[in-house]
Amino acid sequence: MTSLAVANPGSLIQSVDWVAIAPPLIAAVAALAVLVTDLFLPARHKKWLGRLTAAGLALALISLLPLTGGSPRATFCAQNVTGPTDTPLLSGAAAAGCSYVADHFALVFQLLALGGALIAALLSAHTVEDEKLPGGEYWFLLLSSATGAALLPASRDLATLVIALEVASLPAFALVALRRDGRGAEAALKFFLSSVTATAVMLLGIGFVYAASGSLHLGAVATGLEHAPAQLKPLAEAGAVLTLVGFAFKVAAVPFHFWVPDTYTGAPLPVAGYLSVVGKAAGLAGLALATTIAFRPYAHTWGLALAVLAAATMTVGNVGALRQRFDTRHSAVRLLAWSSVGQAGYLLVPLAAAGYAPTATDPLGATAAYALIYGVVNLGAFGVVAAVGRKAGTSVDDFRGLFARSRWTALALAFFLLCLAGLPPGVIGLFGKVVVFRAAVDAGLGWLAVVMAVNVVVALYYYLLWAARLFAPAEEAAAAPAPERRLPVSLTATLGLTASAAVVLSVAPQLVLQVVGGSLF
Q: How big is the CA angle at 235 (ends 231 and 237), to the nearest 5 degrees?
C-alpha cells in the first residue's frame, strides 16, 4: 500500500510524488528536448526528431508500470494527508483537495492517451517527410498535446482540468494547420473557433460552479453543491451544464460535432487519427471526472442529459456516414470522421448509465474498455488509409480490389472495419459493444439500449460496403493504382502493431477486462 504525497507540516513547500507525475512529465520533457534539439540539428538529420519523439512516448508509457498494482497516489494537495488510503477520491485525497491523483482511472486513460500518441507518431514519420512538414514544430506540438491528454485524467480540480484540456487542444490546432494549403487552413480555423467558443462557455460555467460551491476541487465541489443554499441552486445547475459543454466538444458529441469531418479531411492523416482517439479520450476522461465526482449530486439530471446526447450522437454520426458518396475525394477520411462521431455516442452510453448506478465504477469500466478497443482499431484503419493514399487516393473507391494488389493491407483494413462494426472475426469489437449494451440495460436505460442496437445495425451497412470493395474482382482492381510494395518502416510498424493488438484482444478479450476491471476510482 502506497502513501499519498503530502505537504510538510508547517511548511509551504510540498513534497512532490515524482513517480506519480512521471507519465505527463516525461512527455513534457521530451517535447522540450525536441524543441531544443531542432535548433542545432542539421536538416539532413531531422528524421531523428521523430525517433526521439517515439522514444519519449515509449518511456512515458513505461513509467506507468511502477504505478500499477498498488493503492492510488496523490500529490499537490491543499492540506496534509496522514497515512495511506484505498479510496482517495472519497476520503483522503478528496478531503485534502489533491489536484493530481494517479488512480486506476487515470492510469487506464493515460495508457490510451500515450499509447495512441505513440502510434500516431509512428504513423507520422513518413507523412512529415512526404508532405514536407516542419519536423521540429510537428513533433513538439504532438508531444505537447500528448502531455495535456496524459495530465487530464489525473486532474482532480476544475482549474487543472481546464489547463490540461487546453494544453491538449492548442497544439492540435497548429498540427491541423501545418499542412499549408487551403484545406488545412480552413480545417484549423473551424476547429479553433468552435473550440475557443466551447472553452469560453465552459469557463463561464466553472465560474458559476465555484460561486455556488466555494471550491474548485472535484470532491469539495460535490459537497458544496449538495449543501448549497436554495437561491444558488439555479446558478449551480446552469454552471454544471455549461461546464460539460467543453468536454462534450472534445468528445465530438452532437451538437458539438460539426467541426469533425472538415477538420479530419484538412488535417494530415496521422493528426486526424490522433484527434479521433487521443483527443476523444481526453474529452471523455474530463467528462467522466466532472460528472461522476464534481456533479454527483445532480446524477439523475446529467444521466438523462448524457443518455439523450448519446442517442443523438450515435444516430447523427451513422446517418452522416451513410450519406457519404464513395467516389468523392477523401471520402474514406470523411467516412471515418462520421464513424468516429457515431462511436462517440457508444462511448457516452456507460457515462449516462453512471448517473443511474449506485456507484460510478462498473459503467465507467465499460467506457474505458470500449475506448481502448476503439483506439486500437481506429488508428489501425487510419494507418491503412495512409498506406493506400501514398500512391492511390483516399476515396473509398480507391480501395476497390485492394486484396488483389496488396493482400495483407486489405486483410488488415477488413479486420479493422469488422471490429468497428462488431462482427466476427473482429470479436473484440463485438465484445466492446456487448459491454456497453449491458451497462445501459443494467442501469435501466432500455430505450437507449434499443437505440444503440438500431444504430449498430445501421453502421453495418457502410462498414460492410467498404469491406466488400476490398475484395472486388481482379478486372476492377486493375483500374486502380497499386500501393507500394514496400511501405516505410514506421508505417509497417503501425499496421503491424495495431493489427497484432486487435487480433490478440479478439482471441483473449479478457485482457481488456483485466485492465479496466474492478473499481476505476
A: 110
